[in-house]
Amino acid sequence: MPPRRRELLGSALCGTAALAAPALVHSRAAAARVLVVGGGFGGATAARYLRRIAPQLQVTLIEPARRFYTCPFSNLYLAGLRSWESLGHDYDGLRAAGVEVIHERAEDVDAAARTLRLAGGQLLRWDRLVLSPGIDLRWNALDGYDAAAAELAPHAWKAGAQTLLLRRQMQAMRDGGTFVMVIPDNPFRCPPGPYERAAMVAHYFKRYKPRSKILLLDAKENFSKKALFLQGWKALYGEMIEWLGLSRDGQAVRVDAQALEVETVFGARHRADVLNVIPPQKAGFIAERAGVTDGSGWAPVKGENFESQRVAGIHVLGDASFAGPMPKSGFAANNQGKLAAAAIAAELAGLEPPTASYANTCYSLIGPGYGISVAGVYRAQQGRLIDMPHSVGISPLDADAAFRAAEASHGAAWYAAISADIWDR
Questions:
Q1: How far out from the chain centre does Cα 345 lie?
Q2: Quick check: bond before 210 cis, omega within 30?
Q3: Which of 21, 33, 119, 156 is buried most deeply by CB count within 10 Å?
Q4: All domains of the chain, ordered by start, with CATH?
Q5: pLDDT digit string (tens) for 6-50?
Q6: What is the pTM of this model?
């Protein structure tokens, strides 16, 4: 690995390690109650680390699913490189850490009264509220694409039934068919995700349906790790993947799910055998109910602690937040959960909050033994997050096969480590 590359990745990982070290807050913290909504990368991390940092806090996690399936690595499931159950995590480890877990949907927030209402009618009081609800989809933001259409042309952008449906459609597709993916403009969950998915679908097709094609209709001209993806697609899959960006009329404006057809801005129509539509997105439902979202549909936050800019006492983590240059990724949400936990514990104890510094590393798999990554470090400045100077590290284009294999291995190790850190005992 080139020296500069090692330095940049090392900075990102050190930032995470620093947040992982528990700065224990014991007797000075009041026995306050913190409610955490959402048991994914951000929420489950915050709940676990709140208990670790300030064990006397009452920490309750609200999450409808009894088993959480991750979007990270779900593309590998589509390729046949991971089992479905390898993506699932339960909450026994958090219970063992002293977190109360309630499997119910959060329905409403009264910020003035500091209460949260559950779907069953139960009213929970909170001293601090952490929202990490992930995303909701903007139905009909793309003409013709609603919840019913998603049953014919799945988005698979929330891991679960949609992911299983897309895999079944891929398996049933004829050899020589066309897989069409619609990709939205920024911001959206996991910026490199669609392009990794294209590679994983291509891996599956190369093995089982080698005459098939993949067409990507993209509302953007540029995307995360673009040069690396284009290089990797070409090296492993030849001409199987075609990407049409904004300047090549790649922006979809209408979907006919019954006909499996997409229309673009300038009237081109593309027919699919399998149609994967990733629509525009927004913060999960409860964020809107809490009043923390703005006109963008996302929740602007303070860079120092991810507290809402709109409602005091509520912190918003992960994909639901708008955090400037920090992307919507699992790594970022985990990082945010640790910092927010430390900040909340310090505030409740009347102590100085920690210095806000964050990191993100995103691994993508283009094929077995062929990985790429990007890393960044961020800090708070006057309430906002900014990139640390010279902190962005990206896999070099001229890397050899051993480097690509190491990146693939690092990605798998990251998933195992972060899963253990968040959910496992």
A1: 25
A2: no
A3: 156
A4: 3-136+281-422 (3.50.50.60), 139-277 (3.50.50.60)
A5: 343 443 344 443 444 444 555 445 589 999 999 999 999 999 999
A6: 0.93
